[in-house]
Amino acid sequence: MKRIVILLSGRGSNMQAIVEACAAEGWPAKVVAVVSNKAEAAGLAWAAQRGIATAVVDHRGQPDRETYDAELARVIDGFAPDLLVLAGFMRILSASFVRHYEGRLLNVHPSLLPAFPGLHTHRRAIEQGCKLAGATVHFVTAELDHGPIVAQAAVPVLPGDDEASLSARVLEREHVIYPLAVRWFVEDRLVLAEGRVSHRDGVPQHLF
């Protein structure tokens, strides 16, 4: 039984999608904890109501990123995770933190990486005249919003789209591909080698 810890900073809609899919589909895994850098994060209350352990590691007052990340890792490791999932965790993680969880740290980013890393992805896609936008699940590396791609989903950029409408459509796809990618991991169906991800069953994993 794989142990999953989820990190978030807000409402955690992707966290909710993962928790619900895990229960409904009977994964060989359990979300054992939800950790946030903000005590007021709405996702903590949602998790606690479902009997999931929660913890807060507040970044405010910490002298530097390395010190914060060391404390964050200490708390996370107390739950002995096999997989660490970023679900709207609004912190840039240090290289030492990423190395500590190398090969077992997933993130979802609201663009078709490597396009539009960083913030304001939907605005930038619209401004650049993109015909497609989307989301990417990837293993985390020390380089921001890079790393071996596990799955991607594309949505059309429609005439009249603004950031809010495009974001909502992309988020719907995130709620599909993120739980799917996590399920593949806990079922040992992913192979990570030489900076690329393949699937033991040969299932197409790149576009949905």
Automatic annotation (TrEMBL):
Name this polypeptide is given: Phosphoribosylglycinamide formyltransferase
Organism: Ideonella oryzae
Cited CDD domains: FMT_core_GART (cd08645)
Cited Pfam families: Formyl_trans_N
Record-linked Gene3D superfamilies: Formyl transferase, N-terminal domain
Transferase listed as a keyword: yes
NCBIfam families with a match to the protein in the record: PurN
Binding site for (6R)-10-formyltetrahydrofolate: 65, 90-93, 107
Pathway named in the protein's UniProt entry: Purine metabolism; IMP biosynthesis via de novo pathway; N(2)-formyl-N(1)-(5-phospho-D-ribosyl)glycinamide from N(1)-(5-phospho-D-ribosyl)glycinamide (10-formyl THF route): step 1/1
Catalytic reactions of this protein: N(1)-(5-phospho-beta-D-ribosyl)glycinamide + (6R)-10-formyltetrahydrofolate = N(2)-formyl-N(1)-(5-phospho-beta-D-ribosyl)glycinamide + (6S)-5,6,7,8-tetrahydrofolate + H(+)
Active-site residues, record numbering mapped to chain: 109 (proton donor)
Positions of the record's site feature: Raises pKa of active site His: 145
EC number: 2.1.2.2
Residues that hold N(1)-(5-phospho-beta-D-ribosyl)glycinamide according to the record: 12-14
Annotated GO MF terms: phosphoribosylglycinamide formyltransferase activity
